[in-house]
Amino acid sequence: LSLSSLSLIAAHVDDPQQTMEGLSRLGLQLGTQLGECVRSAPAQWVLQHKTAVLGATVGVLALADWIKYLRWKACQGPVLVVPFIGSLFQMVFAPVAFWDAQSAMNPNGVSANSMLGRFMVFVTNTKLSRQVFVNVKDFVLFVHPNAKYLLNGDKNPIYMGKEMHKRVRQLINPGMFGPGALRMYLDTQEAVVLETLDRMAAHTANGFADVREDLRLCAVASGQRSFLGTYLPETQREQFSQDLLTFTEGFLCFPLPIPGLGLWRAMRAQARLMPVVIAAADCAKRSMEQGQAPTCVMDYWALEIQRQADPTSGPGVSSEEMATMVIDFLFAGQDATTSGLTWSLATLTSNAWVLDKVREEVLQHCPDGCNIAAVYDQLTYTHKVARELLRVRPPVPMVPHITRHDTELEDEHGRKLQL
After folding, report:
1. Do 128 and 411 meet the contact criterion of CB atoms below 8 Å apart?
2. What is the pLDDT of residue 65?
3. 244, 313 in Cβ contact below 8 A?
4. 33 exposure class (CB count in 10 Å sphere: 0-12, 13-18, 19+)
5. Backbone φ and ψ of 223, nearest 5°
6. Is 118 helix (H, G, I), strand (E, B) or coil?
7. Cα 315 to Cα 362: distance, rounded to the nearest angstrom
8. Separation of alpha carbons 182 and 173, rounded Å
9. CA dihedral 30, 34, 40, 45 (to 10 degrees)
10. Which of 348, 144, 93, 167 is nearest to 251 (CA)?
11. N or C: which end of the chain has fewer CB within 10 A?
């Protein structure tokens, strides 16, 4: 190894330009020396020393991977990362320690790391995050590799172009997030939560119990009743819930649809879910055409479709497209809601004084156990607690994006980050 290159690296480790110069020189010398050895050595010698040759080759590739990572590391991040793997294992098996360490690297909200040979920037700064989300010219949402098998192709909003996606949002936003739909969510979810609390009380009558499964069932039931209402027959609910869980687990499987494996089972589950939700969409459209009052998200969506100039064409109006997007919401909300509820219980239990104030406010406005939806706007402290829980323990920890080309981000202080 070149002693001069190592000395240069050691002397200028805090200077990115000098460090890269030394690493580049060292990598070039290693590659040149290894190439000379292979070219000049007889084949028999290479076979006799194949372990050494293989080790040297892997070492050079690992060094090249490290050099590539350091070359891109324009912000704070670990200096040493595991070649080819990066910090993947730590993020999966010790997530709390990983995120704490990642956040501590740069309090300004931007830090770097390496995952499976890819350079990654973690952005927690609110302004910079918004730049990534809204700048579709420079950033594109990273889609899970299994999504192409499970999310119904180009009928899914995540695969739509900007204009088409915008038209779908304009159609579904009033129906799904309008005052009527939001009040319906509260009524539905309050009933589901009360049922869940009764079930949890029975489980924990004699001590502690793991309630995550109860909370997952709560999230599943809440989503089904809010989106599908009575259009999902009671006899199909159990099978529908199981298929939805199998579908969700498909995103944790190896991306090969081999019969008998997880992704294949998830694809079969999705094929069973689609006709059920399509039938619910057809029922909702007929109900709204007959002038009935909306009782679920499907109804509000069908009502918005009727208000369109041409309710038979355009993105987001067919029953198949409605079913595709509803399954998206049910799938996305299942784990997110379960995570949010679990952390809410755990955090409130650890902060009894906050829990007492929330209980006091709810009992003050609902002394006789009346419908919380009727006094929802008056629960100001509870609102603040809910928002703080989402800030401290966000149910969705990250939304990965990929840069389309070299670009930059600028924070509130005018500092620019080259990507």
Report:
1. yes
2. 66
3. no
4. middle
5. -65, -45
6. strand
7. 42
8. 11
9. 140
10. 144
11. N
Amino acid letter for position 407: T
Longest dimension (CA), the chain: 91
Bridge partners of 401, per DSSP, are 141
Contact 358, 385 (CB under 8 A): yes
Across the strands, what pairs with 114?
Answer: 119
Q: What CA–CA distance (Å, rounded) separates 416 from 110? A: 11
Exposed, middle or buried: residue 7 (CB in 10 Å: 0-12, 13-18, 19+)? exposed
Please state, in angstroms and as integers, the Cα–Cα distance from residue 119 to each residue in 41, 161, 184, 350, 419, following that order.
36, 27, 44, 37, 10
Taking CA 109 as the corner, what is the angle to CA 64 and CA 406, rounded to the nearest 5 degrees? Answer: 50
- The rounded distance, in Å, linking the Cα atoms of 24 and 68 is 10
- Residues in the chain, pLDDT under 70: 1-50, 53, 65-75, 80, 107, 153-163, 205, 309-316, 369-370
Residue 387 burial (CB < 10 Å; 0-12/13-18/19+)?
exposed
**Alpha-carbon distance values, 418 to 41, 73, 118, 138, 183 (Å):** 44, 10, 16, 12, 44
| CB burial of residue 277 (10 Å; 0-12, 13-18, 19+) | buried
Contacts of 370 (CB under 8 A, 6+ apart): none
Going 141 to 146 to 151 to 154, the CA torsion angle's sign is positive
Residue 2's pLDDT is what?
45
Q: At 403, give phi and psi (nearest 5°).
A: -75, 135
pLDDT at residue number 122 = 85
Residue with tokens 């009033």: 174
Please compute Rg for the chain using Cα positions. 27
Cα–Cα distance measured from residue 188 to residue 221, given in angstroms and rounded to the nearest whole number: 9
User: Which residue type does 203 have?
Assistant: H
Per the structure block, which two tokens stand in for 116?
Answer: 């499976």
Q: Can you read off the two tokens belonging to residue 88? A: 């993947």
Beta-bridge partner residues of 113: 120
| Contact partners, residue 284, CB within 8 Å, separation at least 6 | 231, 296, 298, 299, 301, 302
401-403 and 139-141 beta bridge pairing: antiparallel
Q: Alpha helices of 73-231 — where are they, by DSSP H?
A: 88-93, 95-105, 126-134, 147-150, 162-177, 179-203, 212-228
> What confidence score (pLDDT) does residue 185 get?
82
Report how far apart, in Å, the C-alpha atoms of 124 and of each of 94, 116, 136 are: 20, 21, 19
Note the Cα 80 to chain centre separation in Å.
27
Looking at residue 3, its pLDDT comes to: 45
